[in-house]
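FAQ
Q: What does a multi-component entry look like?
A: The components come first, one per line:
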Amino acid sequence: MKYAYFLSCINESMTKEVDLSLTRWVKDLGIELVNLEKGTCCGGSNLDYVSPDHFLVINGRNIALAEKMGLDLVTSCSTCLMTLRRAKQALDSSPEKRELVNGHLAGEGLRYNGTSDVKHLLWVLTEDYGLNRLAAKVTAPLWGVRFAPFYGCHILRPSSLLGRDNPTAPSSLDRLVEALGGSLVEYGSKNKCCGFHTLLVAEQQSLSMTGNALEDAVRAGADYIVTPCPLCHTALDAYQDKALDGRGVSRNIPVLHLSQMVGLALGYSKEELGIDRHMIAA
Amino acid sequence: MERKEVAFRIYRYNPQVDRQPFYDNFKIAVERGITILRALNYIKEHLEPRLTFRAFCQAGICGSCAVRINGVSKLACTTQVWDELTGSGDDPILVEPLNNLPVIRDLVVDIDPVMEKLKQNYSWVRPAIAEGEMGQKEHCVSDGEFEAINAATDCILCGSCYSECSMTEVNPRYISPPVLLKAFRMNNDTRDTLGCERLGQVSGDNGLWDCAHCYKCAEHCVKHIPIVDGIHRLREEMFERHMTRSEGARHAQAFFDDIRSTGRLREATLPLRTLGVVKTLRMVPLAAKMGMKGRTPPFVVKPVPGIDRVRGIYRRLEANRAAKQGGE
Ligand code: SF4
Ligand code: SF4
Ligand code: FES
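Then the predicted structure of the entire assembly, as tokens:
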């Protein structure tokens, strides 16, 4: 199983442990990820406000680079996923937009044809690899560990674009937890917004969103939150102290990346998976 | 006809009498095809005459019957009981008032906050036709012109998106999705003349740039209106009209600039470029703590291989844009 791997800006800077932990175990599963070295930032659902054409060409190019390799494009970031898929949907449904994009890509020997799918790492595990196969690889089952799966927004909504989980009752991450031997807590915030995208422009409001989700997970008795998105992780981990400030919540709650949770079940240590890099100790 | 005993768990609250909200349980026999609204009517007629809810058209047109069903905002009159059965079909169906609005009684909420925001934000067309010529002159809108706003005109102001909105939940003063949708609809109506003024109004404090693009509004719009596309379009219009002095606009501009210069987002200076010096200084303590864990982004970012190609794309796109603007 071979994929082009989209390098997300945040995983190259603030959340390096995502790719660090991923590299530890993908080969154990026989999955090969080829870095999309020439790919650029997707524009994080901001680029298109400044210029819709730039958004299309830049992301058409990102996907075309994967097409040239003959591979589907995989990302570990939900917002990159949503943004790339938004461009893909626009291009796949409009010959005029494809023409615009291809006019700009021809000089580089690239062409957007729509042949590569754009997927999240979570979908690679649940759909392509398969959870039964993954469960058979588990060497250190997460027995007795209670997880609060936090999906966040951009792996669920808009469902017309993402179309895997039911956004009001998502289950893919829950099933992954169970496949690794972990147990689940039920809590209402699993499909809510972490607040990351407005942390700079509306900090207090964003921290309320973050705090609500954290408080909910703590009250449900979770040992860990686990999330498929490094942006959610940043809000929930790096901003946790600020978000819980004044709420009278009894304790902090460590937040794992999906790639780290898988790594733990496959027998890697917390240090090997970069869990010691988090702001909230696990 | 398939028939079944169905349990309902309904939110009750009369602020004038009850110290706090409570839930009432009812079990009624329901046929397949019956809507939640008809079930509520049955309960009111036969079991609990005081149960209070709002409805009128019973056809998904008036927007008055929106409630939360099993936690999700929907129209009671277009939602079928059968589609809401969960578990083995025996779990009670939870019916609650819309979120983010004050409860008047039981399932009825006060929608005045929505109306107030609509009023504050010029949610109507200010036509080009002079006052004196009103009613005498026609201003036709072609099919093509209408297409751009067609979906947005389907809004029935039911308040479901308002109830689902992540930002409204934490900030009651936030402009809210139906009001942004109206602003999009009016600003793209060819009869309207308020473009800049309306945009200035909706992009102020608690406005357009505070949307967290969580997509909850669009996901749950009862008329399937792509509300977030409308919000995106308004933000694009801010740039088209060079109204770019807000924090939100500077934040977006930073992504645009960084892709040209290195192909990567330079997160280290993102706060500074978005917020300016003073507000950025407030972030220093957290940044210092994150630095100790190796979590601060690097100040110098190496350009991606092939950055020249990306810069070439930018040059050509900008030349095209300049040519287009010159030609207008
Ligand atoms: S996308 Fe924006 S307006 Fe819509 S629900 Fe989320 S925060 Fe509210
Ligand atoms: S946009 Fe949709 S959900 Fe929101 S008020 Fe209008 S019809 Fe209701
Ligand atoms: S009663 Fe009018 S929309 Fe439901």
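Q: Is there any commentary attached?
A: Sometimes. For this entry: Chain A touches chain B through 57 residues (CB under 8 Å).
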